[in-house]
Amino acid sequence: MQDNLAIGILCVLGGGIAAQWVAWRFRLPAIVLLFTLGLIYGPGLGLLHPAAAIGQYFHPLISIAVAFIVFEGGLALDLRQWRTSGEGVLRLTAVALPINWVLGTLAAHFVGHLHWGTSWLFGAIIVVTGPTVVLPLLRHTKLRPRVAAFLRWEAIVNDPVGAILATFVMEFLLLQPSHTAGVSLAAVEIWPHLLFSTMFAIGCGIFPALLVKFLSIRDLLPEILRIPIILTLAMSMASVCNLVMEATGLMAATVFGMALANLHVVGISELRRIKESLGVIVVSCLFVILTADLHREVLERLSLPILALTFTVLFVVRPLGIFLSTIRSDLSWQERLFVGWIAPRGIVAAAVAGVAGLQLGETGDPSAALITPAVFAVIATTMLLHGFSLRPLARYLHLTLSDEPALAIMGANAWSTNLAVTVHQQGIPVMLVDTYSGALEKAARQGVPTLKAELLSEEGLESLEERPADYLIAATPDAIYNGLVCARLAPDFGRQRVFQVSPGLARLDLYRGVSRESRGKVLGEPTWNFSMIDSLFDRGWRFQSHVMTDPAQENEFPPPNTLLFMIIRKGVAIWIFSAEDEIQSEPGEGDMVILLQPPSPPAASSPAPAPAALPQG
Fold it and tell me: Which of 61, 360, 433, 458 lies in the 20 to 30 Å Cα band around 593?
């Protein structure tokens, strides 16, 4: 028993996280790797049989895990983004869903040869584009904010709605054999239950959010219990709603997350970070478990009609549904084409299909056994095709931001402006940020993108999301403010990618100085404080770029009396020099280095400080 448990944990958790890391390192769709891993563990090698091992608690646990994921997605749904994105979001969530349902049903019946009842259920299941698939893809692709908002809102909102729709159809199909009145009796019995369950789920989402807000503003929610209480409420409300009607727990969890985000409860940013980390673990485990639970008999039921149905869904149903739902909208043809193609299905579709196949099989419907292979064929195909084509298609349609590593410099002063201009002139994406528009004018006149914003404000963070950067240099004269900004943005950028001008030698003491958790990495040497760099600039020092053309130059580089600030390898990374780096990098052939150099010839009366040694790799 213990051996089986250890093997299961190693395969699911260890393999899932390893797949996530490989996907991050080599820029691959993580979902595709997880799906493949599950197929190997389950139908391939027969190492895992999750449903048999867990027993009757398998589907309830899956339901709670999915509720956790949609709750995390709900935290990202700010109504201000809805207004900013225009009517496109409303059309994708309210108009496209019923159209795709009808078109999917027709395709299932006439192409896949499923009975009408099973066809309506298939159409309801495939309307969802799960956040478990879409959100990881968005994290690895720098889409324009509007297009990313379209896909994010559609995935998160349609997921619970589609699950409820599929549950309603399934209850309708299960009701018919036991009553002679058929459709009329089903309408009388199911519709009130559906309306009540939906309203109950919405209430279960809004009420706990108001309770959390109430407790927070009255200091009745201790920090140590804030996140545990919120997560417990999310899971508890989802479980209660599922008792009333299956799948309504997803709606309650989504509404709860949205309510917390839009009520602006203090401390949600910490919850969001923790949930993102937990979400990666949950998504990894769920995909491996659900895929491993497929039986070989299911795969053996794949046939030409099912394959034809899959490609009809991809190339006809989805594009046609998006085209019809966005007629006379403000979406461009590029956005309509992109959204019409990108629609990967995820965990909700897989979970609903697994339950539906079992329950409908008891009714004697001969096509019920085909619902699971048909849905999983759509899931596998969309994950493969959409996962690998999202970035190339978005780039071809000019819907992405630059793939070059981007640099943000906070604090517009004389030397930081010169640094931004130097980097910009070499074709590297750079943005200068300051709270005073006058300080940004010089850089703007030379074509450098600028942002007037307070990066510690919600508006500033949202503005930064619209023009995402990969690295940050905090270069204001206020060392404490620099540290605050670096500490705030470190979870988003990565703690190895936020830098600040040295706050001074005394403040860098690992025990008595400013905690590393409360500041960024030191830019350059500890002696390079703001005053020193500013004084050098006043004495004529300027930033210069240099491309390494001969590897032999490395032994003579950098020139004497210069300060090395960064090494840029286009399309790969930016290495910003910091004395706190335990492993340094050195420039290679074709790399660009940014140096702070004295005027030529150097003034004899202005001795230069000892330059930093070239980082050794």
Answer: 433
